[in-house]
Write a structure and sequence with these properties.
Blueprint: H1 16-19, H2 24-30, H3 46-64, E1 77-83, E2 87-97, E3 100-109, E4 116-122, H4 152-157, E5 162-166, H5 192-202, H6 207-222, E6 228-238, H7 240-251, E7 257-261, H8 267-271, H9 291-294, E8 303-308, H10 316-330, E9 340-345, H11 356-365
Parallel strand pairs: 4-5, 4-6, 6-7, 7-8, 8-9
Antiparallel strand pairs: 1-2, 2-3, 3-5
Helix pairs in contact: 6-7
């Protein structure tokens, strides 16, 4: 029998310091330096902060992309009106651009005096806006809060606020039709978020920019409705909806107060540290430092941060650290660190609501 000789290769076990340079992210992390970002918050006085805000808000608009799309007539079409007893739910379609239509649910309390203060309600990942206005994914009515978003649009309405809840781009009725793909020969169907984000990157913008633009158009539309008082305007959202609230409040000064649930922390410890949908990313955002720097575009308006101690994608210690920096480095310049409030609750990635709903109502009615 012929003898086979196998050459045994010796293997060297690399320690962590030797192994790190083999990882591409190791090199990129060396370039991550929010402390030297050109648009980081460095103001030491209110006057300096206001100058910084004007310059930085314009620069962030440009980085987001799609903030200068041509506006068209809204051409509103009311699809349905449903009497829910203590409030009315209206569904309306509005045009945001020549090529884009956005469904919006309006929850209008019956008992409050007109014109009504308004809360923008931005849903996160899931089956879309129905999940925050008391509807199951098949459109059937739901009378008991469910899931991580807990029908928070309905809860805000029952606090006496008119609620405007849009179907955010890439979710629900606004998903891309990929029926042309040859799935029979192995072509997979991408998620709408991922595909739209990559297309937006190719065009020099971001899905975040698209969503912020449409949020602005929604406020423009609400200003045409006499039953709404948009001088008393707030915003609340969870996860991707919290991201929407964060950047929309930073870039649109018409929003008087905001509630950010399951999002506010640091880019380094969350968005850049683990898997997140591509719709969270904005090319060039590093020039604006960390989340607590961007907060300078929200200050001195009231901000509420809600976070669960077992949230796996927005680590609670990073949330707390970022909140303290926002209070002591940013809001203190404006003389109002107390305007950053928190609810650190026991739980995972979800809405809590123990203080958030009352906070938003109080701050926008103040």
């Amino acid at each position: 029998m012929r003898e086979h000789r196998w050459k045994i290769m010796s293997t060297t076990i690399l320690d962590s310091r030797t192994f790190q340079p083999l990882q591409p992210a190791h090199q990129l992390w060396q370039l991550y330096a929010p402390e030297s970002a050109p648009y980081r918050f460095q103001a030491q006085s209110v006057e300096d902060a206001q100058t910084w805000q004007t310059r930085t808000r314009a620069a962030l608009n440009d980085v987001m992309g799609f903030q200068h799309l041509p506006c068209v007539d809204f051409e509103p079409k009311v699809i349905e009106i449903v009497d829910k007893g203590d409030y009315v739910r209206e569904k309306v379609l509005i045009r945001t651009t020549e090529y884009s239509t956005m469904p919006v649910y309006l929850l209008i309390p019956k008992t409050s005096t007109r014109p009504l203060p308004v809360a923008l309600a931005f849903h996160g990942h899931g089956y879309g806006v129905k999940d925050i206005v008391g509807l199951w994914e098949d459109g059937n009515e739901r009378e008991t809060p469910d899931g991580i978003q807990r029908d928070f649009g309905v809860e805000l309405c029952r606090k006496g606020l008119a609620v405007a809840a849009p179907e955010i781009s890439c979710f629900g009725e606004r998903q891309t039709d990929f029926s042309y793909l040859r799935t029979d020969i192995g072509q997979g169907v991408p998620s709408t978020c991922d595909h739209t984000a990559r297309l937006a990157f190719h065009l020099g913008g971001s899905v975040v920019g698209l969503r912020v633009f449409e949020g602005k158009r929604l406020i423009d539309y609400l200003e045409t409705r006499p039953e709404f008082d948009t001088t008393r305007l707030g915003a609340m959202g969870l996860s991707g909806g919290g991201m929407h609230v964060f950047f929309s409040t930073a870039l649109d000064e018409r929003i008087n107060a905001c509630v950010i649930c399951g999002y506010y922390s640091t880019f380094k410890d969350s968005i850049l540290a683990m898997h997140h949908c591509a719709c969270n990313f904005v090319p060039g955002l590093h020039r604006f430092g960390e989340m607590y720097d961007v907060v300078g575009l929200i200050a001195p308006r009231p901000m509420f941060v809600e976070a669960g101690n077992y949230d796996p994608i927005f680590p609670i210690e990073a949330v707390k650290r970022s909140v303290e920096i926002a209070r002591n480095r940013v809001y203190r310049v404006f003389g109002c660190p107390e305007r950053v409030e928190t609810d650190y609750f026991e739980g995972r990635h979800r809405i809590n609501g123990a203080r958030a709903y009352d906070f938003l109502r109080e701050k926008i009615e103040h």
